[in-house]
Amino acid sequence: xxxxxxxxxxxxxxxxxxxxxxxxxxxxxxxxxxxxxxxxxxxxxxxxxxxxxxxxxxxxxxxxxxxxxxxxxxxxxxxxxxxxxxxxxxxxxxxxxxxxxxxxxxxxxxxxxxxxxxxxxxxxxxxxxxxxxxxxxxxxxxxxxxxxxxxxxxxxxxxxxxxxxxxxxxxxxxxxxxxxxxxxxxxxxxxxxxxxxxxxxxxxxxxxxxxxxxxxxxxxxxxxxxxxxxxxxxxxxxxxxxxxxxxxxxxxxxxxxxxxxxxxxxxxxxxxxxxxxxxxxxxxxxxxxxxxxxxxxxxxxxxxxxxxxxxxxxxxxxxxxxxxxxxxxxxxxxxxxxxxxxxxxxxxxxxxxxxxxxxxxxxxxxxxxxxxxxxxxxxxxxxxxxxxxxxxxxxxxxxxxxxxxxxxxxxxxxxxxxxxxxxxxxxxxxxxxxxxxxxxxxxxxxxxxxxxxxxxxxxxxxxxxxxxxxxxxxxxxxxxxxxxxxxxxxxxxxxxxxxxxxxxxxxxxxxxxxxxxxxxxxxxxxxxxxxxxxxxx
Length: 537
Description:
Helices cover 58% and strands 16% of the residues. It is α+β, with helices and mostly antiparallel strands.
């Protein structure tokens, strides 16, 4: 099981090479067996023919050298013949005359043929009780194969003056044919192995270039497509099956890309109207929310206005009477210094009550704005100029940042100046020992070129976080008793809202306060809408 799993994890190239190696090994084994089988017989025949020729040549040399009757020289020549002729294991010389036919041998203690088994030219007689084979290739030579099949005994007639005087027997080893056969087979094996190695290398290179590289390229393209890059295409350099596969892959990716683009376009077209309607619905909801807030605020203002009007009427009449009597008493001089000293104090407090009632009435009513094109920079400079005596008295330094070329806006000069004077007064109260008051004019605001912002920042005492969320509430103040009514910032917020703008505040204790007022360049449409709502109410 593990072997099968390992084989499955192998690459295609590795599998092909392994299969090719197995096929090559089988081919080499088969070719070696066939070569051995087919080569052995021809080689053996060739060795046998050479052995016959060597035997004839040796017999002729013995006769030519005239050493047949000299045993010493004959033995020397036989040893030389055995040495020069490869495969000769033994050489014997027999003569037909004499009592001892064997006159010379290279192996005295070896096996020798009997006299009656020696052929002669006149009468061929052969006893073959223990021999397996007898061959006669020609009239002058006979061959016997030993029982074990390892040797040939080649008998060659010695002919002197036309008569057979004896014979030369050579014992030749047949193993030489096996050695030659083995060398031929080994050479053939090495040649085939080298050829197959070269062939494997050629196939490997061809596989790398024509199969593996295109397949890796297609895998890369498919991985890119899986990652969302549908515009990637595979290189098609060949016209074979791999090239056709790459072209089909490219066409498939192109169709998928076109389908994806078309689907995206249809989805975009289908959702464009929905998005537009969502935007319109969001805008309508925002306008409805602002309208509800405005209506709720208007209702509260109406109720507060009615209450303030009632209070003003109820308080005003007694106050007028009290004020008249106090004025008469002040003119007539009672003669009592303490009383004469208290009468101006009473009159002053009555005036404070009247002023508070008037401010309350002013906060509860809708302002009748007279909109005109104006320069915000000029309004700020005039506000600072009007407050300059009090600022100098309190040792407050003023710094302005009014870039040139600011656009003009539509607004009510008087009410806007009232807003800035109120902010300046609050800053002076926050800096009793002097400080720095800064004015900045900013346009565009957050990339919006249809609005501008005015920042008023002081270095005063600051406002605590718990009070910061209530500073625009009516009647809320952090000033000492008798120094503020809590209506200043509420009136500022009311005026800015009627101009279609917004007022924000940032403050940290001990580090000062910054007010940021944002106004549209053209608030006429919003002012008309606010007036219409007020008319309905």
